[in-house]
Amino acid sequence: MGRVTTTPDAPATSEQSSGVGRSSTREGSRVVIVGGGPGGYEAALVARQLGADVTLVERQGLGGSAVLTDVVPSKTLIATAEWMTLTESAGELGIRPRADEEISYDADFGTVNARVMALANKQSTDIRTRLEREGVRVIDGTGRLNGPHEVIATTRHGQMQLPADVVLLATGARPRELATAQPDGERILTWTQLYHLNEIPERLIVVGSGVTGAEFAGAYNALGADVVLVSSRDRVLPGEDADAAELIEEVFKRRGMEVLSRSRAASARRTEDGVEVELADGRIVTGSHCLIAVGGVPNTEDLGLAEAGVAVNERGHIQVDRVSRSTVRGVYAAGDCTGVLPLASVAAMQGRIAMWHSLGDAVSPLDLGQVSANIFTAPEIATVGIAQHKIDSGEVDGAVTTLPLARNPRAKMLGINEGFVKLFSRRTSGTVIGGVVVAPRASELIFPITLAISNRLTVDQVAGAFTVYPSLSGSIAEAARTLHDARG
């Protein structure tokens, strides 16, 4: 992200809103960060780069939930599950077991989860090593504000007073729990508790069809579990691109998953040998385990926010502007505790922006229009920029084109029959304003579209760039070519 000195859109003094004349204050500025997830540790590295004295307080482990219980473990599990889907096109490609051999694979779940947690712990250790090497003081404990210019850290040895010129709160979020479906860590689980299982659930009921629910439902289905996905909405992934969500739901059903649409879960309870999930209409769904995936709750209790005057919204998220400032001078916040966008990449950028701004460096406010996101189903769904519904509704004057991947020569060679590339452009200028990719490794393919949006490229400029033949990225250039005459 390129950085230029700007005036943030929230009210501020001239000293707050510009880096001019403040670079001399960087050296020795005392920065205290509460929370060691992506928002916290990335902020710490930037602050040290700018010469600040940095202390980071973390209660769980460096990397936070993103590394220890959320992003890294879940995506490692999903990557393992993906291997179980790779042979779906084997027959089409002419690959068959030898006549005298039968090839089949089962997931050793104890080994799978042991590897998942080992990788998460290794990543956490690497982050700690990097921070300490850069001169960040790491305190294992909990932190809370004692007014806007001091943090009280509580460790197993007692309490410490940490004076601060700048405080960054990056305390993350935790799984939302239902009063009628309390997790017990054995049969009724949150996504942080799945990695303690030693065997694949025989029949897993997933309550919630958002990103987390869909990702875990797809992964466990691929690993061999019988999966029931309970969705209160008309389709899975209700907040995502409609065409992408419809395709994923069809894939789920083709792979044997039972999808219960318009079915709200009222409660979940343990039975003698499993669980029962009662739906709002009275139906009972039985299984061996139940995953509750109904969103998150910000970790903003007991932070001393009210006493310090830091405002939160009705859901408990810390209110911040586009340079990560809270409502109190000198107190910033980043990541899931702000409710801006629950992505590790956004948390990290919020943390960096907070340090650039607070320590007087050049900074650009956060631009959510340039944030790419990915859903790690199989195939993956990657998105960036304007959503199609804004174009369909007339809110944005744009053009849309969709190319099925099945017509791409590289996709044909790889036996990819599902997926598409969708590109959006502004009619008046031809500028690329959004895109959707549904494909294996869509998380990699979305990057050229993200670059086009962040650099305000037109579809003609994208179309004029060379792509490798054959390649899946060739469909992005082809989509751009089809929008050449779409200007109004």
From TrEMBL:
Pyridine nucleotide-disulphide oxidoreductase dimerisation domain location: 373-480
TM helices/strands, residue ranges: none
Uppermost EC category: oxidoreductase
The protein's required cofactors: FAD
Pfam families: Pyr_redox_2, Pyr_redox_dim
Domain FAD/NAD(P)-binding: 30-351
Composition bias type Polar residues, residue spans: 1-23
Known catalytic reactions: a quinone + NADPH + H(+) = a quinol + NADP(+); a quinone + NADH + H(+) = a quinol + NAD(+)
EC number: 1.6.5.2
Keyword annotations from UniProtKB, A to Z: FAD, Flavoprotein, NAD, Nucleotide-binding, Oxidoreductase
Residues involved in NAD(+) binding: 208-215, 295
One MF term in the entry's GO annotations: flavin adenine dinucleotide binding
Textual note on the cofactor: Binds 1 FAD per subunit.
Keyword Transit peptide carried by entry: no
Chain residues that bind FAD: 75, 143, 336
Segments for region (Disordered): 1-30
InterPro entries xrefs: FAD/NAD-bd_sf (IPR036188), FAD/NAD-binding_dom (IPR023753), FAD/NAD-linked_Rdtase_dimer_sf (IPR016156), Pyr_nuc-diS_OxRdtase (IPR001100), Pyr_nucl-diS_OxRdtase_dimer (IPR004099)
Signal peptide: none
Record's subunit section: Homotetramer.
Entry similarity comment: Belongs to the class-I pyridine nucleotide-disulfide oxidoreductase family.
Cited PANTHER family: MERCURIC REDUCTASE, NAD(P)H DEHYDROGENASE (QUINONE)
Protein name: NAD(P)H dehydrogenase (quinone)
Organism: Ruania alkalisoli
